[in-house]
Design brief:
single chain, 791 residues, mainly beta, 5-stranded mixed β-sheet, globular
Length: 791
């Protein structure tokens, strides 16, 4: 059996072997006739096995000289573009980006207005987002900074199909096209993956954090079972921190302040270490006072104290080998959520709670990775070795009011929830060159996860606060996941491409639970150790795409995703623990189009999709067995459409809009002895979602620029669960964010005033029906100033 030590040793051996190979330039044989620059660059890319991204406008009438014979690929490209007014601005991992040579006499009005090209890794190789035949939303680092996208919740507001909310600090809700679950058990998995620098984050308690210094954010929609694979039935959020450039020293820093005593600073610096090494250090500090408070304890809630640090070392071991080492650390703390009662004990203020319980949330996490890129004689071999660890702890009241305001047999449920998760992973893959007939990606993946959780739930009796119940569950689950995948594209006649891939995944889980009932030890306590279960699944995909011209791609796809089975480690009975639940699968049928118009100043992407769930995992109370457990209980259908448009009418203005429509339905979901949920919509699936945004950089006749951005986001109403309970309904709302500032003529510094939730809208994150009706609101209006500098 493969073990993580063996794989790590293999990766190290691969790196040593690659480094030991002689540094040899990669020779290719070229036959590119003299022709228009756009066609010549496309032909060169196919023959070189490289991805070359060139500006699409302004090349009319520009011709290249003929290129014939065997030569180094990079030298051939320099020869090809000589005299065209183009230069190489970026060359990384088989992707070369070209830009026009800047001239000192060029005015702003004469600058090209083509939209930015965003490089994504959705297909395990770096490609322009518009050339990838899957539904995705991509945000560049510039967009993340311009629109102050500081969390996944901010990203979700401008992304059709993506919903990010929160039940508590340690339990964010992340749903893509209605795919999510509310399980907190350590033995269950989530159907949406969050990935940072190719490393999977295994628990949602570690998936919601401050975003800073990112190169891009990619939201992949629908099942990603072939290339990402692990439990990704709904989609994946891919965070890319980029890498330092060889020979380029520089950096940036931002310092800000605002209401609620906000103080924040973040920045990064790139330091070249000779011609073959570079180092990057990035960090973030942020803190603010609470948006709410507990009026009984006087403690702040929804405050923040966050510290983060990230380091990278990039090494060019030879002409064919590059190594990227990374490490990061983060910690954050706050006073928990402001769950405000709507009934007993309420003071009428939705920003105060009546819990009378000392809430607290704290989290530490770190990660380390080694990525090795070897440009082999045929294709590129990539090895990714990584480890991620997180520990979070939260004390919170599940009931929306203090026991002081309760009557009868009611009690206040208070919880302490602590988890400790470590995940080692190893992936090795080979990506072929971009041959004239197609390309191929082949790889293997291994993950070894060790997860522990302690959940203590106490019931405080009405009026007196005496202990009515007290249960501690000590949970542990070890997971090993093995996978092999292959994905290839075949170029067909008439500019059609057929992409076919499959992934075989095998998951093994070993679960243990020690349940201690301190009030009723004889009937409520039990232990079980080393319960084992395993599952295997083949998840294929097929995509037929058609590109009648370079700026237009239409595609039809069928993809399948799989979320592994598991154990209900919150079980109240031994039988509910020992019976594992099975995987759920989703098959997605999709039609889409990606297009650019008006000399690449207008981008319109659209898709329609139909998703079929089988064996959908659900948590419910079985009225026949009287047990709350996770069961494969439902079949469901999700249908929808998404539209995204971006337009740059002039060089200083960007406009964007999006719309998403969801129609979700449980086709068969009947709780034994209880409710019939058949026909109800899936939880966390708003029917309508829309956004509009604009950002401007207006020149002031050589005196700098006026800069500004505005975004509007609408989220339609939805239910948080399957029951269609009106008390668990989230009403639709719209939020507006605004910023306005000044940027210096040389772009070295800028000062911006900003406001979020400009209309001070009271909007719900979650409702609660536990004991009393209660609600948890999102952030109020906030505002501040930000000073940014580049050096």
């Amino acid at each position: 059996m493969i073990c993580k030590q063996t794989l790590a040793s293999g990766a190290a051996a691969l790196a040593v072997l690659a480094c030991a190979m002689p540094a040899a330039a990669q020779q290719r044989t070229f036959d590119v006739p003299a022709q228009g620059a756009a066609a010549a660059i496309s032909a060169f890319a196919r023959q070189a096995g490289l991805q070359v991204v060139a500006p699409a406008d302004g090349l009319e009438g520009v011709r290249t000289q003929a290129l014939k014979g065997a030569m180094d690929a990079r030298a051939a490209l320099r020869k090809l573009i000589d005299g065209t007014g183009l230069e190489i601005v970026s060359d990384s991992n088989g992707v070369i980006v070209l830009r026009r040579v800047a001239t000192q006499t060029a005015s702003l009005e004469a600058e090209p207005t083509a939209l930015d090209t965003i490089i994504v890794t959705a297909q395990k190789r770096e490609e322009a987002a518009q050339r990838v035949p899957i539904s995705l939303s991509a945000f560049s680092g510039r967009a993340v900074e311009t629109y102050r996208l500081e969390s996944l919740r901010d990203i979700s507001r401008l992304t059709p199909g993506l919903l990010v909310s929160s039940f508590s600090q340690s339990s964010p809700t992340i749903a893509i096209r209605g795919a999510t679950n509310t399980f907190t058990q350590i033995g269950a998995n989530k159907p949406v993956a969050v990935v940072i620098d190719d490393l999977f984050i295994p628990r949602n308690s570690a998936a919601s954090f401050e975003l800073y210094g990112l190169n891009s954010v990619q939201v992949l929609k629908g099942p990603q079972g072939t290339l990402f694979g692990r439990n990704v039935t709904g989609g994946a959020i891919v965070l890319d921190t980029g890498k330092p450039g060889f020979g380029d020293a520089g950096g940036s820093v931002r310092v800000g302040a605002g209401d609620y005593a906000l103080k924040q600073v973040d920045g990064r610096v790139d330091l070249p270490l000779g011609q073959n090494a570079a180092f990057r250090l990035a960090g973030s500090l942020k803190r603010h006072d609470g948006y709410g408070r507990d009026r009984l304890t006087g403690r702040q809630q929804d405050d923040l104290d966050s510290r983060n640090l990230r380091a990278q070392a990039r090494l060019r071991a030879s002409d064919t080998v590059e190594v990227l080492l990374g490490a990061d650390y983060g910690e954050d703390h706050n006073g928990g959520r402001t769950l405000s009662s709507k009934g007993a004990g309420s003071d009428g203020n939705r920003r105060t709670s009546e819990l009378g319980y000392v809430q607290d949330f704290g989290r530490n996490q770190w990660g380390a990775s080694a990525r090795v890129y070897w440009t082999a004689p045929v294709g590129q071999v990539t090895s990714i070795t990584g480890y991620r660890w997180s520990q979070s702890g939260e004390d919170y009241s599940g009931t929306g009011t203090s026991y002081l305001f309760l009557t009868g047999t009611n009690s206040q449920s208070v919880n302490r929830d602590v988890d400790d998760v470590g995940l080692f992973s190893q992936e090795i893959r080979w990506a072929s060159p971009k041959w004239s007939r197609g390309d191929l990606v082949v790889g293997a993946y291994f993950a070894d996860e060790d997860a522990k959780r302690q959940l203590r739930t106490r019931g405080l009796a009405a009026i007196t606060g005496a202990t009515a119940s007290d249960v501690l569950t000590d949970q542990a689950v070890k997971t090993r996941s093995y996978a092999a995948f292959v994905d290839g594209a075949l170029h067909l006649p008439a500019r059609f491409d057929l992409t076919v891939g499959a992934r075989y995944t095998h998951d093994e889980k070993t679960a243990s639970l020690l349940r201690t009932d301190f009030v009723r030890p004889a009937t409520g306590s039990f232990a079980a150790r080393d319960l084992k279960a395993d599952w295997s699944q083949l998840t294929p995909r097929a995509v037929l795409s058609w590109s009648p011209r370079e700026e237009l791609k239409a595609y039809a796809s069928v993809t399948r995703g799989y979320t592994a089975g598991g154990f209900n480690t919150d079980a109240a009975t031994l039988s509910a623990l020992t019976q594992p639940f099975n995987p759920e699968t989703v098959t997605n049928y999709e039609l889409g189009v990606k297009s650019q118009w008006l000399a690449d100043t207008l981008r319109i992407n659209a898709s329609v999709f139909h998703m079929d769930y089988k064996d959908k995992q659900e948590l419910f109370f079985n009225n026949l067995t009287r047990v709350l457990t996770i069961t494969n209980a439902a079949r469901a259908t999700v249908k929808g459409a998404e539209l995204e448009a971006t337009w740059r009418p002039v060089s200083w203005l960007n406009l964007a809009a999006s719309y998403g429509r969801l129609d979700t339905r449980y086709d068969n979901f009947v709780i034994p002895g209880g409710a019939v949920n058949t026909g109800n919509p899936l939880g966390s699936s708003p029917r309508d979602k829309a956004s509009a945004a604009a950002d401007a950089r207006i020149p002031l006749d050589g005196a700098g620029y006026v800069i500004g951005a505005i975004s509007w986001a609408y989220l339609g109403s939805y239910y948080t669960g399957a029951t269609k309970d009106p008390n668990l309904h989230i009403d639709g709302y719209a939020l507006t964010n605004l910023s306005l500032g000044y940027e210096s003529q040389d772009g070295r510094w800028k000062l911006t005033a900003w406001a979020k939730n400009l209309g001070n809208v009271d909007y719900l994150l979650t409702s609660s029906t536990q004991g009393v009706l209660a609600e948890y609101l999102g952030e109020p209006r906030t505002y501040g100033l930000m000073l940014s500098a580049r050096f």
